[in-house]
From TrEMBL:
It comes from Streptomyces beijiangensis. It comes from the Bacteria. This is Glyoxalase. SUPFAM superfamilies: Glyoxalase/Bleomycin resistance protein/Dihydroxybiphenyl dioxygenase (SSF54593).
């Protein structure tokens, strides 16, 4: 079964980005960083989500990101589905921190349970079929709105969302051009998906 082995973010200053992610989110090798000056403007067409167990943990991560220089795009708040907020890291990557829980049930900790890569797509049916043909198995699908794949051995889950809806969820305009500034590492790569996202082979291949 196809799985995501790594996420690589193209950043202007890998050392600074590394410090931010370690200090704010406690990330280690879940996300790799490499130097790039590839031009990009506006929405890059994806978000990364940190799924936490309770609202207090979401607040702790969002506050740490803000203190580390991130811009708060959506302050943490309650909603019908749970609780969460959105920040943009100093390197430009948009992160959502969220939980389906409505209240804290244990001591607050600056930790998360899952990481999800949400890719904004123009044609859900075409993109979903593209990934199925490359070995991914659909776990959840809601018509042309949302699709989540089964990646049990992955450090990062993959989901597809309509580009405009994803931008709205992130609190930014949907327009954007240039590099996505992200690459997905997998045994399934290399290839480029219908929306221009690059999948690479495993590190060292």
């Amino acid at each position: 079964m196809t799985s995501i082995e790594s996420i690589t973010l193209d950043v202007t200053d890998p050392a600074a980005a590394g410090r931010f992610y370690a200090d704010a989110f406690g990330l280690g090798d879940q996300v790799r960083l490499r130097a790039s000056e590839a031009p990009t403007t506006g929405f890059r067409g994806f978000t990364l989500s940190l799924v936490v167990s309770q609202p207090g943990n979401a607040n702790a991560l969002i506050d740490a990101a803000r203190d580390g220089g991130a811009t708060v795009l959506k302050p943490a708040s309650k909603s019908l589905w749970g609780y969460g907020g959105v920040v943009q890291a100093p390197d430009g990557t948009i992160w959502k921190v969220a939980t389906s829980a409505k209240k804290d049930t244990e001591p607050v900790a600056r930790e998360f349970g899952e990481m999800v890569l949400l890719v904004g797509v123009e044609d859900m049916a075409a993109s979903k079929q593209f990934y199925v043909e490359r070995g991914l198995t659909v776990a959840k699908s809601f018509g042309r709105k949302y699709c989540e794949f089964t990646t049990p051995s992955s450090a990062v889950k993959l989901a597809l969302y309509g580009r405009k809806a994803l931008a709205k969820d992130a609190g930014v305009p949907a327009d954007g051009t240039g590099s996505h500034r992200i690459a997905i590492g997998s045994q399934a790569g290399p290839f480029t998906d219908p929306d221009g996202f690059a999948w690479e082979g495993p590190a060292g291949s």
